[in-house]
Amino acid sequence: MLNQLTDNLSSSLVPLMGLVCLLFGLVGVIDLAVSANAEIMPALTPVLSLATIVTGLAILSYLASWWLLTRLLGVVIIISAVYSAWFAETQMSVFLPPAALLVGSVFLLSSNHNFSFRWSKFAGLLLAALSTALFISLWVRGYTTQWATNPITVTAAMVITTAVALAFLLLPSAKRQNTYPHPVGLFLAGAIVTATIAIWAVVSNQHIDNIKHRGELNLRTSSETISERLVIQDAAIQRLVNRWENVGAQDLKTLIEIDSQTYINDFGLIEAIAIFEQPNRMLPASSGADEALDIFSIESIKQWRADNFSTQAAVVVEKSLHSNQPRFVLVYPINSQDKQPKQLAVVLNISKLLYVRKIPYLDYFDTYLKLSTDYYLPIASSEFYALSEAELADLHFFQLSTELPVFGEQPMVFHAALNSPSVFWHNAMINQFILIVGLLLSVLFLATFDVNRRLNRERNKLYNLANFDTVTGLIRRDVLEQRIEDYLAKNRHLECGVLFIDLDGFKAINDNLGINIGNRLLRAVAERLKEKQLDDVEIARFSGDEFIVFLRYSSIDNCITVAERLLSRIREKFSFDELELYLTTSIGISQPKLEQTTAELLIQNADVAMSKAKERGGNTFQVFTESMGVKYEHALHLRNKMQTAIEADSFEVYFQPYVAANSNKIIGAEALARWPQADGSFISPAEFIAIAEQTGQIVPLSTLIMRKAFAQLAKIQHNSDFVMSVNLSVKQFQRQNITRLVSSLAV
Fold it and tell me: Considering the entire predicted model, what is its pTM?
């Protein structure tokens, strides 16, 4: 039963699964086009979105038997799988490229051959097992980046793979069914799928937006902290410059030594302070670690200082970036009217400057400050390491970058790189249930819709079988009888009429030309009966070649008019291919006469009138009269009584002798049937023989007479010239092997 249900639903579920893939892919493309979240983590990657759209189209193309298009789409899917595995999409789950290859192979081998159907089922089983295993693994063991770096894509891909697996499993039975789903059911199920995927995309993007907001907040926090530190350092150094510019030359050296050491002790970022009178002459009053002071001996730094001797400037010491002590230098001019111009140079520790304590709420990102494409400096890192742009891309798949002002209005590029995509895993798992529940609802809805549609179709079929004749499409006799009863019950005072129609000579046509021609003829007669009929006229097939026409609110004159029109219409030629046929009909008309008239009585009276029309040679009509009713009742009574007499062997044989004219001797006799009654009287053969001929009772009656006649003949066998004759009906020859019957009775 389950297999039968699955086969019946396959023609609806396969298109739905194709629609699911199409909608998934379209939502992915739209999300990539309009959403600003792709740089941090797209809900569906570009290649997966394209492959899903192509898969949906290929499923529908397979179902429509567009083999060339299906195979071309299969090639596209295989190419996308190869591209994902070898060239891009490293954020994809490792199971997707093999799955895509399997999907592509099904479409590449698509055809009407059994091998293609078997491969489709096999691939469906593999895909179902693969998605089930991944689902169990991810939920039982938890998320790991070994599977994928994009949990949202993976959870969606699991659902997509399951949909494709279901389509592959049902494709063979859908092709065998060769039917199409009801467009309304598919549209409504598609609406459920669309709403489900849209809700999933919105909820997923909201979570991505939330994480993205945290990344942006992290960058702003880092920028503001670093900028604040630089402003503090700059203000402190500016105070030194102002102080030194306003003291005499004799006190300057002592003041520089005291202030320099004090600032190095008070400000952790400052590693060395040096004073230059000329571009390359450092005063002995300079303070700081030798390693820091050695920076000023670097040729590039010397040249840079000389170029900026009279201005304020800053530079990062490139050489230091390859060590654990990265540094940068600030220079300030010291100018006074009574002293020689000097330059203050300060060495700051970049690691300490960039170390920003992480906030747990924002601890999803590693942040970097971009100096150039070759140098990305880590922020809030316990260990210093400079990365190139390529190295950063290899380390972090998803990044967020923005320009923020540092140290005044100087724009600097900051990067927030997602340190682990596991932050998305919990929400991706929850959002996956949105997809699962929504798709299950769409499948259940479509299944329910399809089952109800089939049940309605079967119900309509049963209704038609119960109410309509299968050959002519007219209502059945019992249905019409009930409608007549209902009419009579509500409209006793209104006139109506019943026409009983019997086709003359139809049996010979049906026997000689076959049932097919006979049925076509009956349908053609039914169509002619329905022509130009009003709404208050109902027509039913009574049996065989007999029909009933019920005329509501009709007088006897109207009934006669209808009967004459039908007689004329049925006399017209019937054409079937090259065959031309002519028919006539006999019609009986009856109307209710008494309050207690029933539908059965009306039809019976019309039947009696029709028999009267038959007796008159057919091709005419007769209106039922009371005398016809009396004769019918008498004939019915006589028929029943005759059957009892036949079974009781009550008929007797009387012999009418044959006398030779020349000798006056009895040379034979004719056996005659006589029906004696209890009062000594006899019912005339002219009366009961005619009824027996009509009812078929003539056959057993003739057999009874022959048996008794032959028994009497056996008693007078001494006269071999004696001749015995028995009257036989034509029906005796039609229904029985008369030779065998006579032989058996004569033994």
Answer: 0.65
Q: Parallel, antiparallel, or unpaired: how do β-strands 475-476 and 537-543 relate? A: parallel
Q: Residue 171's closest CA among 12, 52, 24, 23? A: 12
- Classify burial at 678, counting beta carbons within 10 Å of its beta carbon; exposed 0-12, middle 13-18, buried 19 or more: exposed
**Rounded CA separation 146/391 (Å):** 19
pLDDT score of 560: 93
Domain membership of residue 463 (yes or no) is: no
Ranges of the chain with pLDDT below 50: 1-2, 89-94
Residues 438, 496: one domain? Answer: no
Same domain? 8 vs 87:
yes
Tell me if 7 sits within 8 A of 176, measured CB to CB: yes
Do the beta carbons of residue 50 and residue 80 sit within 8 Å? Answer: yes
In a domain, 647, yes or no: yes
Q: Which of 325, 298, 315 is nearest to 385 (CA)?
A: 325
Position 3 scores a pLDDT of 56
Alpha-carbon span 386 to 376, nearest angstrom: 5
Tokens of 125: 């089983």
Q: Which domain holds residue 413?
A: 235-419
Total length of the chain: 747
* Residue in this structure with the two tokens 């503090």, named with its chain if needed: 232
Domain count, the chain: 4
Whether 451 and 576 map to the same domain: the answer is no
Q: Is 632 part of any domain?
A: no
At residue 92, the pLDDT reads 46
Q: Are the C-beta atoms of 413 and 232 separated by less than 8 Å? A: no
**pLDDT tens-digit profile of 356-367?**
887 776 677 788
Does 390 reside within a domain? yes
How far apart CA 159 and CA 256 sit, in angstroms, is 72
Among left, alpha and beta (phi > 0; psi -120 to 50; other), residue 281 is beta
